[in-house]
Amino acid sequence: MLKLESKLLPHLGQGVLKYLFVRSPGWGGNSGSNSGILIGTLEDWDDRDVSAAEVMGQVRQLMAGIPNVRAIPVMRSTIGGRSEAPIQYVLGGGSFDQLVEWADIIAEKARENPGLRDVDIDFNQNQPQLEITIDRDRAQELGVSAEEIGATLETMLGGVTDTTFMERGEEYDVFLRAKEEAFTSALDLASLYVRSHTTGALIRLDNLVTVEEVGKAAMLKHYNRNRAITISASLEGNYAIGEALAFLDQQVVDLLPPEAIVNYKGESLDYRSNQSAIFFVFAMAMLVVYLVLAAQFESFVHPLIVMLTVPLGISGALFGLYISGETLNIFSQLAMIMLIGLSAKNGILIVEFINQLRDQGMAFNEAVVEASALRLRPILMTALTTVVGAIPLLLATGAGSEFRFSIGVVVFAGVTVSSLLTLFVVPSMYALMARRTSSPDHVTKKLEALLSS
């Protein structure tokens, strides 16, 4: 961590890094004595010439030259505030040996994908541990049980609470443990003795056990009650999180056995959960708008004609996202929900005015043509104000401009296409579908005519 800090300190106060915080060991589920975390705060957007993504690239280059260190720069998520990679792909099922093999296969494929970088696995067998094997035959010959050997190791190395004592009315635990400095290597076990229950002699522990230093995982993790290993990765450029998860899912289908279980965490889980939720919200918004219009027009046909403008706006928004190279992210999805109202208002103007002309006694075909001509200017004016209002979102710079740009593209393209096509689609569909319908005031006027006669 000191080497990492020394490489970043020269950049502190040079127009990029504002503050630097170093902690070792790190915190969280992956922390250990051989881990650490370094948090850097960037200067304000207006005070620096590089973006956060460019800073991350520079940090990768600085850390690449440090041997035996794996450092992964992660940008804090704008949604949820998580400080972890956006791709959190969880493999479960089977034993940990199988999971390691599966994770290595998927991680290798992920590293070959140019859209993914900083691919890592949270199961690293690099925690030094001492593995003690008891020679049971020799221990039995010398009259020492495995239980006595285990109790001796637990007491001297781990510590146990043996008894308590009273002092001035207070009870205190007596904790037995050897001094830590007495055991710094496997050879120090020679200083431990166990007593034979047959001869009563003290026997050195290294005569009964063999000690091997091995590397093991710091912890064996579970997710949804299954053994699990998480593959994490960052996204490169405009590579979308949906594309990354679809790629990993396909690799699991092609390369892993059927018993492999796939789950998601963090931002990946949010994406998978929100995909179904956003479609539900969109459908509910369409239903609510339709029901409100049905109550206003007192008809189920007229609102349906108005709602035909929504697919026009959505198609325009998708085309705008495709042309601009943007993705269908949470911000563009929210903008599409907003587009329901922006698209429907033009259809309301035409349908409402057709009904008014029909109430005045104008023939059906003449009312459709006349309303379309008279509503042309209001529709173009309202569409123009909405489109011009979206231009600042398209030209925005500074922090968060990428998110505002997505909203601006959806509004600009969706309203433009919807407004232009509405002038042709709504009158045409009204002529086809609403010929046998009447306006909300038709019954009122009929009753008034009967009463007056």
TrEMBL record:
GO molecular function terms listed in the Swiss-Prot or TrEMBL record: xenobiotic transmembrane transporter activity
Pfam families found in the cross-reference section: ACR_tran
Transmembrane helix among keywords: yes
Keywords for the protein's UniProt record, in alphabetical order: Membrane, Transmembrane, Transmembrane helix
Record keyword Ion transport present: no
Gene Ontology annotations for the cellular component aspect, listed alphabetically: plasma membrane
Classification via InterPro entries: AcrB_DN_DC_subdom, Acrflvin-R
Transmembrane segments: 277-297, 304-324, 330-354, 379-399, 405-426
Protein name: SSD domain-containing protein
